[in-house]
Each structure stands twice: as structure tokens, then as C-alpha cells.
Amino acid sequence: MTVRRVMGIETEYGISVPGSPTANPMVLSGDVVTTYAASRGIRPAQASWDYADEAPLRDARGFDMGRGAAHASQLTDVDDPTMANVVLTNGARLYVDHAHPEYSSPEVTNPRDAVVWDKAGELVMREAVRRLASVPPGVNLYKNNTDGKGASYGTHENYLMSRRTPFTRIISRLTPFFVVRQVMCGSGRVGIGVESRTPGYQLAQRSDFFETEVGLETTLKRPIINTRDEPHAVADLYRRLHVILGDANHCDVSNLLKLGSTSLVLAMIEDDAFTTDLAVASPVRTLHAVSHDPTLRSTIELVDGRSIRPVELLRRFHELAADYVQDRWGADVDADTTEVMHWWDTVLTALEGDPMDARRWVDWVAKLSVLEGYRDRDALSWGDPRLRAVDIQWSDVRADRGLAHRLAATGRVEVLVPEAEAAVAMDQAPEDTRAWFRGACLRKFPESVVAASWDSVVVEVPGERTLQRIPILEPLRGTRAAVGDLVDGAPDIRSLLASLAAADGRAD
Amino acid sequence: MAGQEQIKPGRRDDGPDDAPEPVAAPAAQVSDTEIDDILDEIDGVLETNAEEFVRGFVQKGGQ
């Protein structure tokens, strides 16, 4: 496999009401979801979530956590009618996750599409903010991962992997990569420590919130490698690797690299293609230490005793990936992989010299260049509230207020996915995964779809006493190429079910 | 490589607010006018009461 695989990004957005820090975030998040859903003609009760196959307490290491031992926030499969939860025609899930509105992108097959549907999610949030602004003071949303006061909320990546790959190999090979990946993918943060008690600047929003190397939890004792084993697909064939330590990105290049480089490292793990051991000593403490050094000059220690700069370790991963791609595909390599390898090399070359040269491509560098400008011009110390205000407002989803959007709009940040393309993806699903079928059912038969999930669509057929559940357990079936004609040719939901059953019979 | 320093890992979030600031980031090679333009633009949209804005941005923990 190359950078191409089934993947997706889920993001919890920061939420606040201007001037009302005590406003109830659960109610507000519900408002965000229902307001957007209504604007798209979706009734929350109409296309709700089908929880039948959710198993958040299943562990990739092979044991289930007892429900009695689980923190309440880990119980995500309990259907609470007060929690708004809808499926969009682009195949995404929009819902309230604890106290944040969350957009989980549809399944895509490559890193660039992951960026497209991630940006579409931010436009969904922007549209909700615009509509809620008609009732002052409105609601503001932020694509970031911490309030700088001890709370963090996630941007998770999901990668479909082969079930055959031993999980212990994933842990040993992926952990060192995740310790240093923040150097090219971190979004930058003013303040050191989970409550920002030490003034300063660090590479990543999330790193200080990680306390263990491997584990099932996502809301406390967060692990570098999360073991949640909930494949949302044929469980004998696939595992869904749930990555929880990344930051939300605004720079397209960093976002593309986050998905692309990780997918390629996973391909090498699946093929057992690592020719050298790059294990890092004390991964959790080193994760923090790397984030705390924006000069990129300090070294970290590998288990074999070598000292190496984080950017040098990333270069080692790049070299191994380049050799792997050359060895497996040579000149036949796909364009998606070529694009990722190009940016990986370009960004590392910049970071190896003066890191500020990467300010067009990497969030933490772009943000730092603005913050250093303020520090120089106004002689501000890192503890100045204006710098923390810049940090927060950086991720405001509004085009006119969000500082990252202002920089992108004035050509100061490299844009790989134009906003117009992301706007189309707010309503249209990727065509080359089952997300297409899920979205098509909602678009064409909105009155018939009772619920949906990653691996099912539940429909009500007029005259039938029971609901019909259409399983979509193969992420690469249900594509436009596979079922587009059947969906387009079906005048009603009963006809669609009949033609799907006939096609299944022929396939058998 | 000469001049490198070993990171001392393990700093937890218990440092006082007056702790010495970390090593300064590398100087930006951006031209002064370009940075000035950016700052002027941001000045125009940045929350006017930064302290209150920062204090008011309080989130519940998530995943």
C-alpha cells in the first residue's frame, strides 16, 4: 500500500458565547448541530445514528474493558435523545460529543481528499455560526484543541489497516514517529504545561496532555497509541487505527503531511519493511520535550543510545519511506504518494535550516512568525494576554475573524484545497468509498432513512412492519462506480432494496 | 553536532509563572514590511479586550 488507504479525520470544535463563559456547552453544541441540520433540510430525528455496531470499550490488544471500570465519558454508544446527532449528505457525521460539536469526515481513500472533507467540516461549523449569529450574542467555534487552562479536546485520525498486522509492531514502529511528527504537523500553542503555567511557546496543542504510551482511554491518561478496536468494518479483515495525539490543522500542507506520512509509515509497518529500529527513549517525556523546543536544536535520545535532533529523526523516516516507495513502485508510483513525498521533503528541508522558512506550510511556524512580530513590535512577554488571544483567535472558524483564514486569504499560507472545492464537499460525498452510498441514500430518499452509521443504513419501507438495515461493512464497496446506477435508477426505497438484493445474488 | 544541548525531559506543569522563558525561537527571516502588514491586518480584527477574551475562553475537556 502507498499513502492511499481508507482514512478520515474527526474534530471536536471549541465552543463559546462571547461574554458568557458559563454558557452551557452541551446545549450550545446541540444548537450548532440542529441549526446546521435544519439549514440542510435534515430533521435530527430523521437521520439519526445507528449504534448497533459501536463497541468503544473493545481493546486492540484483545480484551474488553468492563463497563463498570469505564469512565462515563468513554460510554459513547448510549443513545441519548437530548444529544443531536445527524448524518450529512456528504457522508459525514455531525453530532455533540460530550461538550463539543464534532464533525467526523466521511471515509476517503487518500490524504488530499482527507484535507478536502476536513475543510468542508470547518465550513459546516462556519455556516452554523453564521446562522446562530442572528440571535445575539451568537456562538463562536474554534478549530483548536485546548483552552490553555487544562482542558483538551481532540482531532482524531482514522486509518483502515490489515487485521493481520501484529499490534505490538504497530506500537513499536509508530511510537517514535508520533513523538516527532509534531515538528511538521503541530499547530502551535502559547503556554507550557496543561494549564499554561509556564510562559512560552510550543509546537503542539495536544502534546502536554499525553501521559501514557499505550491505552484505551481518550479523555484521561491519554496514550500516544490508542488501542480502541472498533473497526466499523469486517472485523476479521480490518482494524481501524484510531490516532488521538494530532492537532487540528489549518495549513493544508501540514494536514496533508499528517495523513500522508502516517499512512505511508503504516504501509511500511504492514509490510514489515523497517530496516532499522528508531525507538525513542522515554516516549512520553520526549513527546513533551520535543514540543517545548521551537528552536528544533535540542537532541533526543534513542533506545540504542544515539542522540539525534527530532527533525533528523523525521528525515530518517522520510529516507526509509522514499526507499520503500522506490523499491515497491519505482516509476509506477501514484500521484498522491508523489505529492506527499514532495511536501515531506520540502518541509523537512526548510525545518532543517531556519525553521521560520516553513511558515507558509506548517501551522506552528506560521503562528510563531505572527507572535514574534507582536513580541518585537510591542515588546510583549510570552505571558501577555494579547499573545494568548492571537493563539485562540487563530482558529476562529469565521473567515473575517479567524487569523489563519486571514493569512490564507492574503496568500501568506500555501493553499492546496481552494475553499470552493471544500464548499462543494459540504454536501457531496467522496465517490470512491461507501460514504457515497450513505450520502446518496440521504440525498435521494431522505424520508425513508431512519438512521445510519459508518457500517449501516437503516430504512423504513412503506407498508413494511420492520425497519430494514442495509449493512455496508466493506469500506470500498458502495462506491459510485459500484452502485451509482442502482441508486440513480431506483424510483423509491423499495426498488433500491430489491435491486441491491438482486445484485448481491448475482455476486454470489 | 557542536552547540547542541540535550533536552532535559520531564518538566511538569507545576512551574511558577515567573519561570525563566525557554530559549528564544530563531529569528524570523521575514521582511519587516511584510510582518508589519500582517500585524496591521490582525490589529484590525483582534479582540480588543484580550484579557477578558482569554479569560472567557473556557472549555470542557473532550476526547
What features would you describe in this structure?
The complex is a heterodimer of chains A (508) and B (63). Chain A has 508 residues and is of the alpha+beta class. Among the domains of chain A are: 164-227 and 234-241 and 250-395, no CATH class; 435-507, no CATH class. Chain A is 38% helix and 15% strand. Chain A has a six-stranded antiparallel β-sheet with strand order 4-5-6-1-8-13. A four-stranded mixed β-sheet of chain A has the order 3-16-17-18, covered by helices on one side. A two-stranded antiparallel sheet of chain A has the order 2-7. The longest helix of chain A is centred in the N-terminal third of the chain and has 22 residues, at 111-132. Chain A starts with 6 loop residues before the first strand and ends with a helix. Residues 62-79 of chain A have low confidence and may be disordered. With 63 residues, chain B is mainly α. Chain B has a domain at 33-57. Chain B is built from two helices and no strands. Chain B has helices at 32-45, 50-56. Residues 8-20 of chain B have low confidence and may be disordered. The chains are: A alpha+beta (508), B mainly alpha (63). At the A-B interface, strand 2, strand 10, helix 5, strand 14 and helix 8 of A face helix 1 and helix 2 of B.
Q: Which helices and strands, and how do they pair?
A:
The complex is a heterodimer of chains A (508) and B (63).
Chain A: E1 7-12, E2 14-16, H1 25-39, E3 48-49, E4 85-87, E5 93-97, E6 100-104, H2 111-132, E7 140-142, E8 155-162, H3 167-185, E9 189-192, E10 198-202, E11 210-215, E12 222-226, E13 238-243, H4 252-270, H5 283-291, E14 300-301, E15 307-308, H6 310-329, H7 335-352, H8 363-378, H9 385-393, H10 403-409, H11 419-424, H12 435-444, E16 449-453, E17 456-459, E18 468-471, H13 480-489, H14 493-507
Parallel strand pairs in A: 3-16, 11-12
Antiparallel strand pairs in A: 1-6, 1-8, 2-7, 4-5, 5-6, 8-13, 9-10, 14-15, 16-17, 17-18
Helix pairs in contact in A: 1-2, 2-4, 3-4, 3-5, 3-6, 4-6, 4-7, 6-7, 12-13
Chain B: H1 32-45, H2 50-56
